Amino acid sequence: MIKMKKIPLGANKQVNPEIFAITPYIPGGLMNASKLKKIAEVAEKYNLTVKITSGQQIALIGLKADKVEQAWKDLGMKPESITGLTCRGVRFCPGNTFCKRARQETIKLGKKLDTRWRGTKTPAKMKISISGCHLSCTAPAIRDIGIIGTDDGYNILVGGSGAHDARIAWTLIKNRTAEEVEVIFEAIMKFYMENAKITERVGNLIKRIGIEKFRRKVFNLVDNKYLQYRPTTVKYEYMEDDDQLCGIKKEES
Length: 253
Description:
The protein has 253 residues and is an alpha+beta fold. It has 2 domains: 64 residues, Alpha-Beta Plaits; 162 residues, Sulfite Reductase Hemoprotein, domain 1, CATH 3.30.413. It contains 6 helices and 11 strands. A hairpin with a 5-residue loop joins strand 3 and strand 4. Helix 4 packs across helix 6 and helix 5 packs across helix 6. The radius of gyration is 20 Å and the shape is globular. It starts with 11 loop residues before the first strand and ends with a strand. This is Nitrite reductase. InterPro entries: NasD-like, NiRdtase/SiRdtase_haem-b_fer, Nit/Sulf_reduc_fer-like_dom_sf, NO2/SO3_Rdtase_4Fe4S_dom, NO2/SO3_Rdtase_4Fe4S_sf, NO2/SO3_Rdtase_FeS/sirohaem_BS, Sulphite_reductase_assimil. Keywords: 4Fe-4S, Heme, Iron, Iron-sulfur, Metal-binding, Oxidoreductase. It comes from Anoxybacter fermentans.
């Protein structure tokens, strides 16, 4: 039986227990030429395999344990590895900053949510993605929380999964502004973190309590936050045919 070595800080174990991988974090997979050149220099120095990951990152594979710390120093970055029961980095497409098909901005929103939530301890691993249109290049419909840009704003999806219990996410609400997305996102995270069981993904929590209760609890939290500075009450209308939240009507309190 092969005995696994202690994993160095900021490294990921591989099949071969003698080697490790590191993944310098690149928000949204966007970087300048200088950063890309630095990564290439480190890969060349240590004769590493370079892997473009499905999470919009670049993994450097093949480091010996005693070289991991120095490799991070060569990159000019602090060692880190976001794994386990945590919120992963937010995946986002280029949005209407670059893509002619995108309907909404994604880079600023993606970086905001990434800065706020990446690395946060959660009941189970949390995957989030944002797509600027319904082509869904970042696959938001199979993420714990997905956001899709439309002509009229952003749709928020919850409970998707691409794992062994694969499912398409429920649509929580449609056509919201970026500001509203941030508030609703925080409410989703708060309710999930306070009510999910250990290792229970968002979709499994929804299956356990029901989408109606999940919506009600989340939007109660949204109301409470909004009421701190906006004296309105909010009514939510539901589509009868597919149980999706389709809009908001506001009434002055």
